[in-house]
């Protein structure tokens, strides 16, 4: 048995959730993949995977073995890369978790350029606005907005995004155009972004010089996903505050109208975050540098 080959085969089944999908990604027959995993189980004398007619699940022993071998495989990949003549071409599997609007409007449009520059890196994006557990969810890094509070994590600020407050022309015809943030508390409705941690609507923040306002107003709809939040604003469901990059094309087309432009809250910082005890591989390092250059264009 080629144990290293069997370990990689087992890992791919865990990640894919099925033997068929794992075999497809590895470019090998399903039967060959199955025999490799069975040989590994026989070698270890442990059941790693529980198979049914519909799905494959990982046993507790399998989950533990996966976690331990993943660290070894990543270290082996890094050792190989460090001794390779192709040091300028990092390789391996990179798992990144990112918010919805950042994924669809910032990362994914630019990702072909990254993959062309580093063709030996395979990138998997976990896309949602929820905050993941970096260790439990087996990701290499996350791109997060807001100030960092977890001291067990290392974060590199890669940029920031400005805010825009806006509404549809039809909404403004019905409700009027506010000239001061306080006007949003009477006669207006807000399309709130809901915190994925608390479920509460985040206030619309405004600042001009020493004056600051945090407006909760009247909410008719709340959305906890950034792309859907913009869709709520486009539907005329209320005044919304979102990142400038998320609304820019809609403002340019006239679908949204910017409001209270002289009242600008501070830019929202974005970080690449990873666990403090995790080795920074060459593939992660080049991704962070690339993301920093990409986010610099948002300012």
Integer count of domains:
3
The radius of gyration computed from the alpha-carbon positions, rounded to a whole number of angstroms, is 24 Å
CATH evolutionary superfamily of the largest domain: Periplasmic binding protein-like II
CATH structural architecture of the largest domain = 3-Layer(aba) Sandwich
The strand count comes to: 14
The chain-level structural class is alpha/beta
First-to-last CA distance: 54 Å
Biggest β-sheet: count, sense, barrel?
5 strands, mixed
Q: Number of helical segments?
A: 9
Please give a structural write-up.
With 299 residues, the protein is α/β, with parallel strands linked by helices. The protein folds into 3 domains: 3-82, Winged helix-like DNA-binding domain superfamily/Winged helix DNA-binding domain (Arc Repressor Mutant, subunit A, Orthogonal Bundle); 92-161 and 269-296, 3-Layer(aba) Sandwich (D-Maltodextrin-Binding Protein, domain 2), CATH 3.40.190.10; 163-266, Periplasmic binding protein-like II (D-Maltodextrin-Binding Protein, domain 2, 3-Layer(aba) Sandwich). It contains 9 helices and 14 strands. The chain has a 5-stranded mixed β-sheet with strand order 4-3-5-14-6, covered by helices on one side. Strands 12-7-13 form a 3-stranded antiparallel β-sheet. A hairpin with a 2-residue loop joins strand 9 (204-208) and strand 10. Helix 1 (3-16) packs across helix 2 (19-26). The radius of gyration is 24 Å and the shape is elongated. The termini are far apart.
């Amino acid at each position: 048995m080629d144990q290293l080959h069997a370990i990689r085969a087992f890992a791919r089944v865990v990640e894919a959730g099925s033997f068929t999908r794992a075999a497809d990604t590895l470019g090998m027959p399903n039967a060959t993949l199955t025999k490799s995993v069975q040989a590994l189980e026989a070698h270890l004398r442990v059941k790693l995977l529980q198979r049914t007619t519909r799905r494959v699940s990982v046993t507790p022993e399998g989950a533990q073995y996966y976690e331990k071998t993943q660290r070894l495989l990543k270290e082996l990949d890094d050792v190989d890369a460090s001794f390779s003549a192709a040091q300028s071409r990092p390789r391996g599997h990179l798992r990144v978790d990112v918010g919805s609007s950042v994924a669809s409007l910032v990362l994914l449009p630019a990702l072909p350029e990254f993959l062309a520059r580093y063709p030996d890196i395979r990138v998997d994006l976990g896309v949602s606005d929820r905050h993941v557990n970096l260790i439990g969810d087996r990701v290499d890094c996350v791109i997060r907005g807001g100030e960092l509070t977890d001291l067990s994590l290392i974060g590199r600020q890669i940029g920031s995004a400005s805010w825009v407050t806006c509404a549809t022309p039809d909404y403004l015809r019905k409700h009027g155009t506010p000239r001061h943030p306080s006007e949003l508390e009477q006669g207006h409705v807000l399309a709130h972004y809901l915190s994925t941690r608390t479920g509460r609507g985040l206030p619309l923040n405004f600042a001009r010089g020493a004056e600051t306002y945090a407006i909760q107003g009247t909410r008719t709809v709340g959305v906890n996903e950034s792309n859907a939040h913009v869709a709520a604003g486009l539907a005329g469901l209320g005044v919304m505050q979102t990142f400038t990059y998320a609304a820019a094309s809609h403002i340019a087309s006239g679908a949204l109208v910017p409001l209270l432009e002289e009242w600008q809250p501070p830019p929202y910082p974005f970080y690449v975050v990873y666990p403090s005890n995790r080795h920074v591989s060459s593939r992660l390092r080049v991704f962070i540098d690339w993301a920093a250059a990409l986010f610099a264009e948002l300012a």
